[in-house]
Design brief:
single chain; alpha/beta; eight-stranded mixed sheet; seven-stranded mixed sheet; 33% helix; binds zinc ion
């Protein structure tokens, strides 16, 4: 809304008061035509997601939705941090959220429900929303869950053996398995159970075929975009090899590709490699690295061959764990909150390429009008960036390039932790640059590991040590 204090003829006025550091309370006054006002509070507690969405009706009533509440395993003082987040959610919401969403079963999205169990017990919840993949009675979900359980059962002892075989450094396999809470006393299963058992809450398993959730008093409706039903989409994590420009590029990708090409020229084929380029150290490079020189070619051909077999075994276990991890990301429940004239808020969770691609075939009929996802993307004003800004979780075409009206991009990330966890380039520089360019004219990009820029603050971003807050109206 653009206006000034002396607006004539408007039926809508706003009063603002400040309560505490950085917390702006926006109180709308009744209007004839309901006009949505949305506030998104994104917590800055570490590498993980927690967002509190508040909608306000024309009469001042509030609708609150909490999307995820978790932080990556290995975070210092995680329990205290998640308790602080949960207490703030309770204070801000008056102790009740209408809808609680857990987008997918990864520790960095659900840990708070067990780490802050005492505070969570005080939060009243109207409905719990999970993706259809979490429905134990869904015939498509059952085989997925079994595959996942079987793979985990295989990988957990493998991780322990690998830890013994390798070094004091956590292996990539171990860090990947941590998403499932496998290395902690509390588990991701435990967090999901805590959600399902939330006292008084109705459980909804969301499906893209569902009718949009109507919030007519708030001038809003909520569409489910993912997780996809089609297994081919569900299992597609990366851009097609024939369409490298489907996502933003890894800064190091060109280098990795040239190294892979060199390795291929020496006789290795890309197709039979267990790892994609970014995860692979070609033989020719490994031979120049002290770690491998000391361990793998010490006395080649004289009783040391078992080490290579060991390496192959570790590669396939790690590869399986990465696939499992990406598959769970792709079960992300993706929501588009349509605020009518005020635009659309897109919460993409950790959706990867196939999840995004599946949205193209969705359509709904609302009030006699056909709605497709591209329309929602074109009207998107706020985008919760997919998967902490990784390279395969924001599509270009049919994704960010459609969001021509984007004003705010929120990236929940902690770059230093991502480096420690060996996640690589997170957030991806080229993606951040594209987000900055897209929002540049009137908006801004917020990443939770940094304070808002002066321009973002001037354009309305509010922040404390604990959260960012953005108002859309
Ligand atoms: Zn995540």
């Amino acid at each position: 809304m653009v206006g000034n204090a002396s607006d004539k003829g408007t039926t809508k006025t706003r009063s603002r008061s400040r309560k505490g550091p950085g917390a702006t309370v926006v109180t709308p006054v009744a209007t004839n035509a309901p006009r949505p006002a949305a506030t998104v509070r994104t917590y800055r507690h570490g590498l993980g997601d927690c967002h509190l969405l508040t909608l306000t009706s024309a009469t001042g009533r509030k609708f609150r939705m909490l999307i995820d509440c978790g932080v990556i395993l290995g975070t210092t003082n995680a329990q205290a941090k998640m308790s602080a987040v949960m207490r703030d959610v309770i204070q801000e919401s008056g102790g009740t959220v209408d809808v609680l969403v857990a987008t997918h079963r990864h520790w960095d999205h659900v840990s708070g429900f067990v780490q802050a169990a005492d505070d969570f017990a005080r939060l009243k919840v109207g409905q719990v929303w999970l993706g259809w993949t979490e429905n134990p009675r869904d015939p498509d979900a059952a085989p997925l869950r079994k595959q996942q359980a079987d793979a985990l059962a295989m990988l957990q002892p493998a991780a322990a053996r690998m830890h013994l075989a390798a070094s004091a450094e956590p292996t990539l396999l171990a860090t990947v398995l941590e998403f499932f809470g496998a290395a902690g006393a509390a588990t991701t299963d435990g967090a999901m159970d805590a959600l399902r058992a939330k006292g008084g809450a109705t459980l909804r398993y969301c499906d893209p075929k569902d009718e949009p959730f109507e919030l007519s008093d708030f001038g809003a409706r909520i569409y489910v975009l993912g997780p996809p039903r089609d297994e081919a989409f569900l299992k597609k994590m990366l851009p097609a090899k024939t369409d490298r420009d489907e996502t933003y590029h890894l800064a190091a990708e060109a280098f990795a590709a040239s190294v892979a090409a060199a390795a291929a020229a020496l006789g290795g084929s890309d197709e039979d490699q267990p790892f994609g380029g970014p995860y692979r150290i070609p033989d020719v490079v490994a031979r120049s690295m002290p770690f491998f020189q000391a361990r793998y070619w010490v006395d080649e051909g004289a009783g040391e061959a078992w080490r290579s077999i060991d390496l192959a075994w570790m590669d396939s276990a790690t590869q399986l764990a990465l696939m499992l991890d990406n598959l769970v990301n792709n079960t992300s429940l993706v929501l588009a909150v349509d605020l009518g004239a005020a635009g659309v808020l897109l919460f993409a969770a950790d959706a990867q390429v196939g999840n995004w691609e599946s949205w193209r075939t969705h359509e709904w009929t609302v009030g006699g009008t056909r709605v497709v996802v591209d329309d929602l993307l074109k009207r998107t004003v706020l985008y919760k960036v997919g998967h902490h800004g990784s390279y395969n979780a924001t599509l270009r075409k049919g994704g960010l390039e459609s969001m021509s009206g984007l004003r705010v991009a929120l990236i929940p990330v902690d770059h230093n932790m991502a480096v420690k966890k060996r996640w690589g380039d997170i957030p991806l520089n080229t993606l951040v640059a594209a987000l900055e360019q897209t929002t540049g004219a009137a908006g801004y990009v917020l990443r939770s590991d940094a304070l808002p820029s002066a321009q973002a603050s001037a354009r309305g971003a509010r922040s404390t040590d604990l959260y960012f807050e953005v108002t859309v109206d």
